[in-house]
Design goal:
Four copies of one chain form a homotetramer.
Chain A lengths: L15 H25 L2 H8 L6 H4 L3 H12 L17 H18 L1 H13 L1 H27 L9 H21 L7 H16 L8
Helix pairs in contact in A: 1-2, 1-4, 1-6, 5-8, 5-9, 6-7, 7-8, 8-9
The structure holds a DNA duplex (21 and 21 nucleotides).
DNA sequence: AATGAATGAGGTTTCATTCAT
DNA sequence: TATGAATGAAACCTCATTCAT
């Protein structure tokens, strides 16, 4: 009978060997999660996949939830943050929107398994969901500010609530990506999706641009 | 976890008493699911909530998945299927869209707990997810056909891929509803949401209407 | 992975079969505890000893601590509560004291294994220790009141603090019993112990009695 | 739990550095034992408290039991052995008894945490219990011899079995100390306890002394 | 049809101990 | 000597499902 509370675990490694093991565990966790899904992933499997003893998992993590967090942290770089204002011909809003949509869809397709996983874990783990919403909010804010700028320049429909419009259109893109690349709905190419989504954005925002005359 | 194939399957009740018990179980299941979520709902809890013995559950159902199906069947009526073409001033597409969005959001808000549950179970139960996608597809088809009609009438942007546009815009609405009523993102009123969403639809579809002159 | 807190368990049986099983578990627990000691007793062993599946333990108890409580409750009757005033020639305090000591020692010897167990668990389980101290206090109170009565009758040394004296002399008897019957210190007979202890009590309390002229 | 016989045993340190480490470990062990109790003290905690790596523990000790022994050896000096014949006015047995009781109680109070620990470990570790009983026996022998001397001088009740009486009265004192300073029973001052205990001893032994005329 | 008790597989978690550096 | 990571045995506990009344 355990006579003691968990106490600690979840330490950062000090030695090189420890660092290696931790990395192996995170990689193994990612593989197991992508293969079995969050719920069916057993800690045992992660240890095995990493080639370490079952107990070694607890040298670095406290729970499945915690490794999952580590996997996500590791992966953050990999998932790009497409920004509406970054690319291409900065003066033509249509080009900007198109570039952003393309970047997003490509990244989504590239990491489809991971995105599926995130979607799943969001429905299972309260903390992760909250964290994710927070990030999405930041992203939407940026888009909203960009939209306000367009409205000021007289390029976009000034009657739109920028916040809501940004939220709704972002949701549209991410949901389309989810349906296409995780759920396998439809067979359209990235370019087909980019074309339609951009046209919808442009119309929705009331942008008048030479691109679509 | 099933160690053998179930000896008997959930049967339809024969006696009046049986009918009552089955109804009690389904109601209890809904309450427990909404309270604890799908994963944490124990069959034991459902029986207890229904005021029957643990074993009685298996007189009517084989598994958690199965009661969940029954709950959904029971609830189907309650969840409306907003159709783009049904209400109001059928000749003004803006009115039609607005009415559909309003109906959808109101229904979503009314059944928010249930919608959260469906979203969750979609991520957990393969079968349920597939079933739900099938329904969503049917719904989208209808919208796509309506859009084609608008394009033929010269009211909507003829260059849009009707399928994709319908899918994307439906996804937008349902995701906004999810964020607002399940995740608690924002504090906007139904009317505010309806206003923005409708304006986005109308713009996106390139509808030229007196309503928005 | 358990996704749920313990929830409940530890129910009282409703059916006759359940009652039988619970009794079997308590008896088995007592046997295992007396054989292996509290710490080394495994819940698994208790179930096995009772001839039921491992999981069945949790139908009636939540923890080792809880069965132990049940064992003690079951046993309470069996352990007599020797009272200084009950037996024999009520007017002769020496007879009364002697009878009480004899009764106590006999009971202790009869339940030596159990008493050893109680002593052990007192050092391990906070709650049990507190409970036991509470009982001991009640017992001491009674003795203290009896002593006050003797002091009022002019039979016992009036200068003694009755509370303290009662506590000290009770402790003396129980500790002697523990040393003799649990630790195996000495080889004296019950009567030898009764003789000395009574003589010590009588002297300590300053009782002047014909019995010891 | 040991799965193999220990490859090496706790050695005495050779270097000065080693000596320091060993001392740190013993001190840490005492602190952890007093804080967490014997059972809940983890070797890991002791190492941490001592500020050394987990593995370093095994350079000096083989087991928890072994450090505990070292702690006790370290502490032996600190725990006085009150002797009935040592102090004060050697000719007045009452003074002698009183002085011994006072010395014992003061020492017990001073080391209450440690005494609690010893009491606990006695119930858990067979070897330690035996060792402790042996010491107690030696102590009782001395008291018994002193009592015989008193009987020969005609000062104490000659009918008492000296062995038993010494054992019983010593047990009384140590148990009262345990209840008062470890279990927190009562609020009496040392002097109040000394007063009552001495009076009980004197009466119990049938000592006739000017002190109590 | 209902009851409620029994079953048992199997993943989780701990921590004393070992050992390569 | 010290370090700190790795090991792995072992018990716990849950709860879906069965089944005798």
């Amino acid at each position: 009978m355990p006579r003691q509370l968990p106490a600690h675990t979840g330490r950062a490694p000090v030695s090189a060997r420890g660092t290696r093991t931790r990395i192996a565990l995170v990689q193994a966790a990612r593989a197991v999660f992508e293969r079995d899904g969050y719920l069916d992933a057993r800690i045992t499997d992660i240890s095995a996949e990493a080639g370490v003893a079952a107990g070694s998992f607890y040298t670095y993590f406290t729970s499945k939830q915690e490794v999952f967090g580590a996997v996500m942290a590791d992966v953050e770089e990999e998932m790009l943050h497409p920004r509406i204002l970054e690319p291409a011909d900065r003066d033509d809003p249509v080009h900007v929107i198109e570039a952003a949509n393309r970047a997003y869809l490509l990244a989504y397709r590239r990491n489809a398994r991971l995105m599926a996983l995130m979607e799943q874990v969001s429905q299972i783990d309260e903390d992760f969901r909250r964290q994710r919403l927070r990030r999405a909010r930041a992203f939407t804010e940026r888009n909203a500010r960009a939209l306000v700028a367009l409205q000021r320049r007289g390029v976009a429909d000034p009657q739109l609530d920028a916040q809501l419009a940004a939220r709704a259109l972002s949701a549209m893109v991410s949901r389309v990506a989810y349906l296409r690349y995780v759920q396998g709905v439809g067979t359209e190419s990235v370019e087909a999706l980019v074309g339609v989504l951009t046209r919808l954005w442009v119309g929705a925002l009331g942008i008048r641009s030479a691109t679509y005359i």
